[in-house]
Protein: ABC transporter ATP-binding protein
Amino acid sequence: MTPDASLERPTDELRGEALALSYGRTRVVHDVSLHLRSGVVTALIGPNGSGKSTALRALARLHRIDAGSVHIDGTTGRRDAASLTAKEFARTVAMLSQSRPHPSGLEVRDVVAYGRHPHRGRFSGLTDTDRDAIDRALALTGLTAMAHRPVDELSGGELQRVWLATSLAQSTGILLLDEPTNHLDLRYQIETLDLVCDLADRGTAVGVVLHDLDHAAAVADEVVLMRSGRVHAAGAPAEVLTADNLTDVYGFRIDTDVDDATGRVRVIPRGRHHERLRRSAAVPV
Ligand SMILES: Nc1ncnc2c1ncn2[C@@H]1O[C@H](COP(=O)(O)OP(=O)(O)OP(=O)(O)O)[C@@H](O)[C@H]1O
Structure:
């Protein structure tokens, strides 16, 4: 699962400034700014309901913006995301949403081919470039051998990889992933994280919502810690993933240390079960 290094290096960046977002009359995201830079993995973390998905969806033009702006900075200068046609935007930004449809009556390859829609003319068939992009997306997600299986027969994790492949087939310079490791077994969780890093290494701007803080520590160049619809802290993983920040935001004791092998922060949640383990270790059976 390594992206093709021969492809042109993307340079687009996505900038959400002072975003205010609501459901109906309820404001759920307040004054949030997010800057997704080319070649950088930005992880959005925070408790349930803190506004991560809503913010990511706003960057993908899937949620109405009450105040603030979303811009794309690319080779042709700065463009307001709202000024692009749907196809232009979809050639620039791909998003793997948390709510993923369950298509039926289609093969895996057909679903992944949907990712090429923004690159195709209204009546034109798949070009060689389209087919190459589909093959590459299937390979990157470990789906080549399943390309002709009906999607109706797939497990939740396999289907998740099909949607990831569909986003990759869009061949965008900006990739937004909402909990991409959900439903995946350990191998594909790690492969997906590796893929995220590989894509960033060849220039993609990646914004990824992650619940596993060790995953965020392992892959993120920048971490945005959200709380109650606001950015509580943002910056390098070692600056954001501190015991104080995490304990404060998640509302129970969380310690951190540093993995000697990688130099990355390790997160140690101190649930009541730790106390139980400590007691049972102290009292010989
Ligand atoms: N469709 C909706 N209608 C009304 N309120 C919503 C809707 N979706 C989300 N919300 C509310 O908006 C707030 C932010 O939700 P959001 O899904 O962005 O949080 P999140 O950080 O992604 O949460 P999670 O980690 O649980 O996925 C929450 O208070 C949530 O209850």
